[in-house]
């Protein structure tokens, strides 16, 4: 083995430098199975000091690095393109005690969302971000991608929860900002710069996270509506009348069919509908009556089913949350994660099938997502060798509707060539200057975010 591998073994322990192909394999392919590459080796540091030492050693050797959390990313940003040292942060999984007065907690980058949620809830608080990959997604990856999920409506996305971070620059310098002060105007906000930077500027090792009130009483409505326009009418009614609204999601009949077959779920309604909306309310007291009253006075509602018990909540949410796994069981999807102004949503949904069919006649699009933000997940199945053309056609359509090419999954390797559709040449040039200042040798996550 080369000098670098020997040096890494000395830094993190021989058992945490994986060079054998079988041991590397689980780290080398992303969740979708679309992105895969060979790592030079996988390194598993356990502390910030070890991460710093690993980065220093890689910098001295001129070795490029790819950073990985729970490997739940969907844009190919956490797996190697080929030949990088893969730094897994899974062992940085320390959770400190909840500070109940500040309503904050410090968590290691490798802590899973599910563990963070359980920890916060045991202290009578909650974490503001929730998403279907909660059992594997980690704090560091969620900060790096500025993850969104199902409660952005209520609490904002990941960056809104982050009061500070500890992070390691590519030269091994450790930046520590974990005091969590509620007001602190002392210069550039490096924490917020790193949120959404996709591991291209520094490696987040710990985070000071804000917590939110625990709202134990929940009610969910699964609502059948005629289509996207009716779904938006229902959203408008929910937004104006439901003070406790915590989620508003959408899916369509073809997604429902896939999910029902995959998760063996019954048809939710006697009659099929054009679109389905999930509304969730959460409070200290049961919000069921509030939801029922809103549904009964909204003309867009064709049919609805409401639950507030644990089993019923899980059952209704599973129609929406099983989409990703059901799609994956049907094939390797081309995943597009876009956001348009709500006024453009109906037109986008209408024009989408024709746009895809024009470049990939055999492909089909499963559409679902976060209605409140106009954030649709367009999962194209059967694109085969036309995946790039489908991506190009759909992202151009989205840009024409004043939308963004990445709403919450990030740009990664998957969308980097299309970044100019969403950011001006001046913005991209400024981003490159920031990248060059913090990572002059271009060693961190090369090929991710910024177009080649
Ligand atoms: C979701 O909202 C996730 O369920 C995954 O962002 C979306 O699989 C997808 O495309
Ligand atoms: Zn999503």
UniProtKB/TrEMBL annotation:
<feature type="domain" description="FAD-binding PCMH-type">
    <location>
        <begin position="35"/>
        <end position="214"/>
    </location>
</feature>
<dbReference type="GO" id="GO:0071949">
    <property type="term" value="F:FAD binding"/>
</dbReference>
<dbReference type="InterPro" id="IPR016167">
    <property type="entry name" value="FAD-bd_PCMH_sub1"/>
</dbReference>
<comment type="similarity">
    <text>Belongs to the FAD-binding oxidoreductase/transferase type 4 family.</text>
</comment>
<dbReference type="InterPro" id="IPR016166">
    <property type="entry name" value="FAD-bd_PCMH"/>
</dbReference>
<dbReference type="GO" id="GO:0016491">
    <property type="term" value="F:oxidoreductase activity"/>
</dbReference>
<protein>
    <submittedName>
        <fullName>D-2-hydroxyacid dehydrogenase</fullName>
    </submittedName>
</protein>
<dbReference type="InterPro" id="IPR016171">
    <property type="entry name" value="Vanillyl_alc_oxidase_C-sub2"/>
</dbReference>
<keyword id="KW-0560">Oxidoreductase</keyword>
<dbReference type="Pfam" id="PF01565">
    <property type="entry name" value="FAD_binding_4"/>
</dbReference>
<keyword id="KW-0285">Flavoprotein</keyword>
<dbReference type="InterPro" id="IPR006094">
    <property type="entry name" value="Oxid_FAD_bind_N"/>
</dbReference>
<dbReference type="InterPro" id="IPR051264">
    <property type="entry name" value="FAD-oxidored/transferase_4"/>
</dbReference>
<dbReference type="Pfam" id="PF02913">
    <property type="entry name" value="FAD-oxidase_C"/>
</dbReference>
<dbReference type="InterPro" id="IPR036318">
    <property type="entry name" value="FAD-bd_PCMH-like_sf"/>
</dbReference>
<dbReference type="InterPro" id="IPR016164">
    <property type="entry name" value="FAD-linked_Oxase-like_C"/>
</dbReference>
<dbReference type="GO" id="GO:0022904">
    <property type="term" value="P:respiratory electron transport chain"/>
</dbReference>
<dbReference type="InterPro" id="IPR016169">
    <property type="entry name" value="FAD-bd_PCMH_sub2"/>
</dbReference>
<dbReference type="InterPro" id="IPR004113">
    <property type="entry name" value="FAD-bd_oxidored_4_C"/>
</dbReference>
<keyword id="KW-0274">FAD</keyword>
């Amino acid at each position: 083995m080369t000098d670098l591998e020997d040096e890494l073994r000395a830094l993190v322990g021989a058992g945490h430098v994986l060079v054998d192909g079988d041991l590397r394999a689980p780290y080398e392919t992303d969740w979708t199975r679309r992105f895969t590459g060979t790592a030079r080796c996988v390194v598993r540091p356990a502390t910030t000091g070890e991460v710093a030492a690993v980065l220093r050693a890689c910098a001295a050797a001129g070795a490029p690095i790819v950073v990985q959390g729970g490997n739940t990313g969907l844009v190919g940003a956490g797996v190697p393109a080929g030949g990088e040292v893969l730094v897994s942060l899974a062992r940085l999984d320390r959770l400190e005690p909840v500070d109940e007065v500040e309503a904050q907690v410090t968590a290691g980058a490798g802590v899973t969302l599910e563990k963070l949620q359980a920890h916060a809830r045991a202290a009578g608080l909650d974490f503001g971000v929730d998403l279907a990959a909660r059992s594997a997604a980690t704090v560091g990856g969620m900060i790096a991608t500025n993850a969104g999920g199902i409660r952005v409506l209520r609490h904002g996305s990941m960056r809104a929860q982050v009061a500070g971070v500890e992070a390691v620059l590519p030269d091994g310098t450790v930046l520590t900002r974990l005091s969590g002060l509620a007001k602190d105007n002392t210069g550039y906000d490096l924490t917020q710069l790193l949120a959404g930077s996709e591991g291209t500027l520094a490696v987040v090792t710990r985070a000071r996270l804000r917590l939110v009130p625990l709202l134990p009483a929940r009610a969910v409505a699964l609502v059948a509506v005629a289509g996207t326009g009716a779904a938006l009418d229902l959203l408008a009614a929910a937004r104006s009348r439901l003070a406790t609204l915590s989620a508003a999601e959408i899916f369509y009949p073809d997604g429902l069919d896939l999910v029902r077959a995959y998760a063996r779920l019954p048809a939710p309604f006697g009659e099929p509908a054009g679109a389905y909306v999930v509304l969730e309310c959460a409070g200290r007291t049961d919000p069921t009556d509030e939801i029922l009253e809103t549904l009964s006075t909204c003309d867009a509602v064709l049919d609805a089913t409401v639950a507030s018990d644990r089993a019923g909540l899980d059952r209704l949410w599973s129609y929406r949350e099983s989409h990703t796994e059901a799609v994956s069981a049907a094939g390797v999807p081309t995943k597009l994660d876009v956001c348009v102004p709500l006024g453009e949503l109906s037109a986008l949904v209408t024009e989408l099938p024709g746009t895809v069919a024009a470049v990939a006649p055999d492909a089909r699009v499963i559409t679902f997502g976060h209605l409140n933000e106009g954030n649709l997940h367009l999962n194209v199945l059967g694109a085969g060798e036309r995946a790039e053309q489908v991506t190009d056609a759909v992202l151009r359509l989205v840009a024409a509707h004043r939308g963004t090419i990445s709403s919450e999954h990030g740009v990664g390797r998957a969308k980097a060539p299309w970044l100019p559709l969403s950011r001006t040449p001046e913005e991209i040039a400024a981003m490159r200057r920031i990248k060059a200042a913090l990572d002059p040798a271009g060693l961190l996550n090369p090929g991710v975010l910024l177009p080649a």
